[in-house]
Design a protein that fits this description.
This protein has about 450 residues and is an alpha+beta fold. The chain is built from 19 helices and 12 strands. It has a domain of about 140 residues. A hairpin with a 5-residue loop joins strand 8 and strand 9.
Amino acid sequence: MNTQDNITSTKFGRAAKLVGTGAKIGGNYLKYYAKKSITGNDNKDELHASNAEDIYDSLSNLKGSALKVAQMLSMDKNVLPRAYTDKFALSQYSAPPMSAPLVIKAFKNATGKYPEEIFDSFDAKCLAAASIGQVHLARKDNKTYAVKIQYPGIADSIQSDLRLVKPVANAMFGLSEKEMKKYFEEVEEKLIEETNYDLELTRGQEITKACAHINGIFFPKYYSELSYSKVLVMDYLEGLHLKEYLLTNPTQESKNKVAQVIWDFYEFQIHTLKSIHADPHPGNFLFTADDRLGVIDFGCIKVVPEDFYLNYFPLLLPEVQENKEVIDKLMRSIEIVFPADSLEVKNELTSAFLKMTDLLSRPFRTEYFHFTQSFLDEIYQTGEEIYRIEEVKKPTQPRGSKHALYVNRTYFGIYSMMADLDATIHTEAGTWRFDLLAKHNIQSESETILA
């Protein structure tokens, strides 16, 4: 893999890089239209492949929030053509890494010491590279560590990067500046948190301790005495990423076991901790031959506010979906509909939202559920249908709580991994179901009454 000897960190340099990429994309379109005029061929596969290559090359070299946006888009398969999602998926754990000299320089700038002053040995060759930092192996006192080093200048470039990416996102999704504002604020907040390695260390310690009782799961131990604000040191964990794991042809029984671990891990976080590992892409999980799951990277954690939890998750329950009065209340609470909406808009949005939540809640309504690619495709197809609704495509005002952004992303990530595993697991809603029904004074499955 090619390495980088420098990372552009100035606002002007990063802007120039994106402008240059735009010029390349324009050239790709010219080639496409010229070829179309000669051959009459309207196949855009080659165009998408060329654009995906140029965009990824640009974002992967810029790192930071620009690459993180690509990573998020790679998980949302109904947003972009397959050529883009396949290419952007590389950002999850195999972006072009820093060269060895740049690694040593970044480490020295962050710690004031060279790696060999802290460790007995340090491998300057990258083990894994992503959007915010890259990981190296080191040894000290016969123990192997994973050392995550933050890319230079990334923390300072987040706000300017998002300003550059925002017009592209506006154009891609057809959203207004007003519509995007609160969502970009949420993304910006999470990206800033991801560059805060002190916070990641604390959260990693807290969540791993709270989840230690879950069978089949293991976490790295974090070492505060070896870590710095831009260098994070933890245990090195053995295991395979999902794609590599599937290539070993594990039995369906093994895939079901590890899928159950993933499900139990997230159910506990969401409904007990109210704090979620909100970056559920395959690069953050390690699968072992004995059906265990390693979880790494606690940089992106979504703390779920209590009021959002109480008004969002009941919508997954059939007793609530059948209660119009409760639905009306919840739809207003999570900012899908507003008092000023016409009855037509209100009914259309409510119907569309319930169609999606009915689909997403299928696993919770049965004791066991089989996650398939066709189920995932149905979710994405429903999303495309909803996007065609005029008030969704061109909203008159921002709709949907900002807190849903990372919660939904988490569920889509979980469902996607489950489908890749073709897993059949126990998914029936736990005791949290009865707690939420009681909160909304719903008395039974057959008769729901809002007090």
